[in-house]
Amino acid sequence: MASKNLFLLAGDGIGPEAMAEVKKLIKAMNDKLGSGFATDEGLVGGCAYDAHGVAISEADMAKAVAADAVLFGAVGGPKWDKVPYEVRPEAGLLRLRKDMELFANLRPAICYPALAASSSLKQDVVEGLDILIVRELTGGVYFGEPKQIIDLGNGQKRGIDTQVYDTFEIERISGVAFELARTRRNHVTSMEKRNVMKSGVLWNEVVSQTHKARYSDVKLDHMLADAGGMQLVRWPKQFDVIVTDNLFGDMLSDIAAMLTGSIGMLPSASLGAPDVKTKKRKALYEPVHGSAPDIAGKGIANPIAMIASFAMCLRYSFGMVAEADKLEGAIAAVLDDGLRTKDISSPGMTEVGTTEMGDAIIAKFLG
Ligand SMILES: NC(=O)C1=CN([C@@H]2O[C@H](COP(=O)(O)OP(=O)(O)OC[C@H]3O[C@@H](n4cnc5c(N)ncnc54)[C@H](O)[C@@H]3O)[C@@H](O)[C@H]2O)C=CC1
Ligand SMILES: CC(C)CC(=O)C(=O)O
Ligand SMILES: [Mg+2]
């Protein structure tokens, strides 16, 4: 069987702790199921800066581009707060997204039945929740130029970021959202701020045109992004697929994370366009959370977001749908058994560390 080449970038903070659980899972799949994964590892973020003075080396960038899929942990932390902006840890992740042209970031927020009572929201608000945020990932204010701080010479400085979207960027991300909606509950909500932003006006127009031209069978709603944030915590089950820009998608998915119990639960897939000849798409899989410096090194991080990101990798990069379903089922089953990391723990549950949670999920998956 041809190898499935995975490039692992664990990063900083809890990144390596969560990635360790996925490495155990990959080894178990190779040893017990003959899954045929070949892995290589590189440095990204603060650890890459410490080693090479950049947030990702050219050699590791080349490996990421060449891999069938990249698994990414998390980057950043207070240790690197003062490094030059261009080489800050987060720049490594942004470069991966941009250079690999990973324009579509899928962030599913699913409330596992066992966690419905432990959300900070009322049980009936989150029970059965299954929404998908489709975040545009290579445009908007994260990448728009100019992006600078200028000295105004009067004791004042001016910080500038630029929100830019072209028609094709909005068209292709809304196409992804409509296609995915057709496999779900056939409903897309587009979020922008057309009341204050020109890019929001264009976003709204292009999503509507794309809908009319190719996806009129899908229900489409438009919502201002601030109201969308409010509706997400008021009655999130009104949504199926949310499509939004890079910045709003970042913020709305952190909000959605708390509907599921913890940000330690939310996986994501960042996908490029399918290659015209091979149909393969570049892909990077990462938890929605960051490096969590406050809990790094304590062995208490929730590895579920990272493991569920690997499940998305099985599904989207390798077509291993049965294995992906089984892995997601193993996560649900372990939660049903009452196992909880600290972030999702509640009275009467069995609190476990990162390693125990990983081991339990792997055992269920193989069992
Ligand atoms: N994709 C990435 O690599 C991201 C990196 N970051 C970076 O991470 C650093 C910390 O950022 P924060 O704003 O604190 O966000 P964060 O997501 O790292 O942490 C926010 C809170 O959630 C908790 N948390 C996060 N993941 C968890 C997990 N798996 N299990 C249990 N608890 C978890 C943390 O302990 C913390 O209290 C910053 O340098 C930031 O730039 C932030 C977001 C994404
Ligand atoms: C570059 C990242 C640190 C931004 C972020 O928070 C995210 O993509 O979730
Ligand atoms: Mg974020």
From TrEMBL:
Catalysed reactions, semicolon-separated: (2R,3S)-3-isopropylmalate + NAD(+) = 4-methyl-2-oxopentanoate + CO2 + NADH
Cofactors demanded by this protein: Mn(2+); Mg(2+)
Keywords associated with the record: Amino-acid biosynthesis, Branched-chain amino acid biosynthesis, Cytoplasm, Leucine biosynthesis, Magnesium, Manganese, Metal-binding, NAD, Oxidoreductase
Marked site positions, Important for catalysis: 142, 193
All copies of domain Isopropylmalate dehydrogenase-like, residue ranges: 5-361
Residues noted as binding substrate in the record, renumbered to the chain: 97, 107, 135, 226
Location in or out of the cell: Cytoplasm
UniProt-annotated binding residues for NAD(+): 77-90, 290-302
SMART domains linked: Iso_dh
UniProt EC number: 1.1.1.85
Pfam family name, one: Iso_dh
Positions of Mg(2+) binding: 226, 250, 254
Free-text comment on the cofactor: Binds 1 Mg(2+) or Mn(2+) ion per subunit.
UniProt-listed InterPro entries: IsoCit/isopropylmalate_DH_CS, IsoPropMal-DH-like_dom, Isopropylmalate_DH
Pathway(s) annotated for this protein in UniProt: Amino-acid biosynthesis; L-leucine biosynthesis; L-leucine from 3-methyl-2-oxobutanoate: step 3/4
Gene Ontology molecular function: 3-isopropylmalate dehydrogenase activity
Primary localisation category: cytoplasm
Domain of life the protein comes from: Bacteria
Biological role stated in the UniProt entry: Catalyzes the oxidation of 3-carboxy-2-hydroxy-4-methylpentanoate (3-isopropylmalate) to 3-carboxy-4-methyl-2-oxopentanoate. The product decarboxylates to 4-methyl-2 oxopentanoate.
Quaternary structure and partners: Homodimer.
Similarity field: Belongs to the isocitrate and isopropylmalate dehydrogenases family. LeuB type 1 subfamily.
Protein's recorded name: 3-isopropylmalate dehydrogenase
Lineage: Bacteria, Pseudomonadati, Pseudomonadota, Alphaproteobacteria, Hyphomicrobiales
